[in-house]
Write a structure and sequence with these properties.
Elements (H helix, E strand, L loop, with lengths): L19 H4 L5 H4 L6 E2 L11 H13 L9 H14 L9 E4 L2 H12 L5 E4 L6 H8 L3 E4 L10 H13 L4 E6 L11 H14 L2 E5 L25 E4 L2 H4 L7 E5 L4 H5 L11 H13 L1 H25 L4 E2 L7 E5 L9 H9 L1 E2 L1 E2 L10 E5 L4 H13 L3
Parallel strand pairs: 1-11, 3-4, 3-5, 5-6, 6-7
Antiparallel strand pairs: 2-8, 7-8, 9-10, 10-13, 12-13
């Protein structure tokens, strides 16, 4: 698979571009939830300036007054071109896509299409907490198939879970997190092919949340779920929001496999009214013209992974950290510190560092925290220093 080396992007590392004083002027959730003396390394926002092509595209739209309703397929076309260039995948058919407000609302719509009230939705904890919240709000049953001890999908557990949910009657779906949040695991083609085979065997519909797909580092390749054999009935959600820090500019794409086109066609027409037209312009520009900026970000994230590992080894050696191959999130096992089920609470109140508690991530989350690596080396260094000081 062809890889574009991010080391040669020529762009400066965006993670080192902004001062803490400038970041504290932001009014988003990351910077307004906690007092100013707290370092926020929790929610999935990045401490970066926007990519210049995105700024230019949005500025041009505002200058033109182009702030009406979304139309056309430019976003899907840009994603298809990005997928072919970055992942060597030419199977993203624009005619089998639909715009949705964001990935999680798209997940809701896809699950609505392939399950009914009271049906089972299988998830792999520890996993992104909104998986539990949104599914429960839809009046579906969350059924867990926990990850293995290695932080990867346990195919034996998954098969047994599929067997149980279909035996109970009704329809079932599998909400796949790919790459996985919070572990950063990138599922291999062998793993995803096995998932597709199990889903076909038991009649379970796969809905893949692939929002972190552009954020794969090192020598690892991202494999789109719909690209593997047997995934023709699958549905996927993708977006530029995580990789280019565009969560406040709402837009995402639902993508159907060849045998799921009829399902996607049943999505209510009004769902497509939810995305922001300016958001679509921003996401399109990111995918089409933001590659060099993304490569610089990926290089910075690799540096931060190594930095965090070194800092923990020096200051908090009891914390177990297995760097993932994707996302800008670090999953830290703090159980050996003896801080109980919620070490994030200790680090916040004693160390003034805000991390995500592992508890909302479900089975396997107790005693863990999630740390956001998308910050400057100075902030990460200070955060680990504070975490260590909190234990004294």
């Amino acid at each position: 698979m062809t890889r574009i080396p991010h080391e040669t992007s020529g762009e400066p590392n965006p993670l080192e571009a902004l001062t803490l004083d400038r970041l504290r002027r932001r009014t988003s959730m990351k910077w307004r939830t906690y007092p100013e003396d707290v370092l926020p390394l929790w929610v999935a926002e990045m401490d970066v300036p926007l990519a210049e092509p995105v700024v230019r595209a949005v500025t041009d739209a505002l200058d033109l007054g182009d702030t009406g309703y979304p139309a056309g397929t430019a976003y899907a076309e840009a994603l298809a071109a990005f997928a072919e260039k970055r992942w060597n995948w030419d199977g993203l058919a624009v005619e089998r896509t639909a715009i949705v407000p964001d990935v999680m609302l798209g997940v809701v719509e896809m699950i609505e299409l392939v399950t009914g009230h009271g049906d089972a939705v299988v998830v792999n904890p520890p996993v992104y907490p909104p998986f539990f919240q949104f599914v429960a709000h839809m009046d579906r049953r969350v059924v867990v198939a926990p990850l293995g001890a290695d932080g990867r999908i346990d195919l034996g557990v998954l098969e047994e879970t599929f067997r149980q949910v279909v035996a109970a009657g009704g329809r079932a779906a599998y909400l796949l997190c790919s790459p996985h949040n919070p572990t950063g695991a990138v599922h291999t083609v062998e793993e995803l092919s096995a998932v597709a085979a199990l889903a076909d065997r038991y009649g379970v519909r796969v809905v893949a949340d692939e929002i972190h797909a552009p954020l794969v580092v090192g020598g690892t390749d991202f494999v789109p779920y719909l690209s593997v054999p047997g995934a023709e009935r699958g549905l996927s959600l993708m977006s530029a929001s995580k990789a280019w820090n565009l969560a406040g500019l709402k837009a995402a794409l639902a993508i159907a496999g060849p045998a799921a086109a009829a399902d996607l066609a049943r999505m209510p027409e009004e769902v497509g009214h939810g995305p922001s037209h300016v958001g679509i312009i921003a996401h399109t520009a990111a995918l089409r013209d933001g590659g060099a900026w993304l490569d610089a970000l990926l290089g910075g994230l690799e540096t931060n992974r190594r930095l965090l590992a070194d800092l923990l080894a020096e200051h908090l050696p009891a914390i177990r950290y297995r760097p993932g191959d994707a996302t800008y999130l670090a999953w830290l096992d703090c159980r050996a510190l003896g801080l109980g089920d919620d070490p994030a609470d200790v680090f916040l109140h004693r160390g003034r560092v805000a991390l995500n508690s592992g508890l909302p991530f479900g089975t396997g989350g107790a005693g863990h925290v999630r740390l956001n690596l998308a910050a400057s080396s100075e902030v990460i260094t200070e955060a680990v220093r504070r975490m260590a000081a909190a234990l004294r």
